[in-house]
Amino acid sequence: MLKDYHDVLTPKDIQKILGISVNHAYELVNSGQFHVVRIGRLFRISKTVFLRWLKGQ
């Protein structure tokens, strides 16, 4: 499933993976539950960090 995604995820990728709304994905990204890199208005999340968070859920 996650093999189809790059090593760096976007909120849109997280939305598709979790099956949630894009607004909820952005809320999750802004919640501080996992490390996010912000480049201007763009958010990027390491797939490794996201998987670690997901397994800890």
Automatic annotation (TrEMBL):
Domain of life: Bacteria
MF terms (GO), sorted A to Z: DNA binding
InterPro entries: HTH_17 (IPR041657), SinI_DNA-bd (IPR010093)
Pfam families: HTH_17
Domain Helix-turn-helix: 8-57
UniProt protein name: Helix-turn-helix domain-containing protein
